[in-house]
Design a protein that fits this description.
- There is one protein chain.
- By secondary structure, this protein is α/β, with parallel strands linked by helices.
- It has two domains: 34 residues, 2-Layer Sandwich (Alpha-Beta Plaits), CATH 3.30.70.20; 192 residues, TIM Barrel (Alpha-Beta Barrel).
- Helix content is 40%, strand content 16%.
- It contains eleven helices and eight strands.
- α3 packs across α5.
- The structure holds iron/sulfur cluster.
- Iron/sulfur cluster (SF4) binds next to α2.
């Protein structure tokens, strides 16, 4: 097999009729993709400079001029590439585009602060108020995330909260009540997008050959979504479903 022999890290082996990649050895050089005769491996994504990306975006400038629209960088986590994002947003702003950052909030304070001067709106994900549960489901606690929201609340940064629902994990009464209390008491942010759970991420995981652990979870019940919508509305929030 060309790829097994060609892998510089000896990460590929032929086992029981299949080529297996050892992730602990793989350096992600993508040489196996380049030499695969059957195109069984696929590169996802490509490298691009911030200037070239802006040129692509600017093809829609007449539309932006008409609508007052702009660009949203989401992920993954855009702040994993802070230097790129900074350069891109700076250039986009210079061309009069509105800039939006969609973040999970689990980033260093330094990175977050660095992007504020060139960001018109931050869409900030808030998932679980209990730090232990947050760690259980996302791998990290939520203290940093909540601290960032409190910090942002003391600035004049525009922030919209995004609440992605996972049935029986964070759409439960305790979590919703705690979230409303936290936002009301600790922040000035009153705009919330409720994002009902759906299965569209499943295909992405499949393409990346990764296990999708939420596979068996059903989509959000409309009655539960409506109930959460009413709770936030009643507490004085401007709420949207979707967004
Ligand atoms: S990406 Fe590079 S290191 Fe990883 S399996 Fe392919 S050739 Fe080997």
């Amino acid at each position: 097999m060309d790829c097994v022999d060609g892998c510089p890290s000896q990460a590929l082996s032929y086992q029981a009729g299949k080529i297996v990649r050892d992730k602990t050895l793989c350096s992600e050089c993508l040489h196996c993709v380049d030499i695969c005769p059957t195109t069984a491996w696929e590169k996802i994504g490509w490298e691009i400079s911030s200037a070239d990306l802006l040129n692509i975006v600017l093809k829609d400038q007449p539309f932006f001029d008409e609508s007052g629209g702009g660009v949203t960088c989401s992920g993954g986590e855009p702040l994993q590439q802070t230097d790129f994002l900074l350069a891109f947003f700076q250039a986009a702003r210079q061309r009069g585009l509105h800039t939006v950052l969609d973040t999970c909030g689990y980033v260093s304070l330094e990175k977050l602060k660095s992007i504020l001067p060139v960001t018109d709106l931050i869409l900030f994900d808030l998932k679980l108020m209990d730090s232990e549960l947050h760690e259980k489901y996302t791998g990290v606690g939520n203290c940093l995330i909540l601290d960032h929201l409190k910090m942002l609340s003391k600035t004049d940064q525009e922030v919209g909260i995004r609440f992605p629902l996972i049935p029986d994990v964070n759409d439960v009464a305790d979590n919703v009540t705690s979230m409303i209390r936290f936002l009301s008491e600790e922040t000035r942010f009153r705009s919330v997008d409720i994002l009902p759970y759906h299965h569209t991420a499943e295909a992405k995981y499949e393409r990346l050959n990764q296990d999708y652990r939420l596979k068996k979870r059903s989509i959000s019940e409309p009655s539960v979504v409506k109930h959460i919508f009413r709770q936030f509305s009643k507490a004085g929030f401007e709420v949207k479903i979707g967004g």
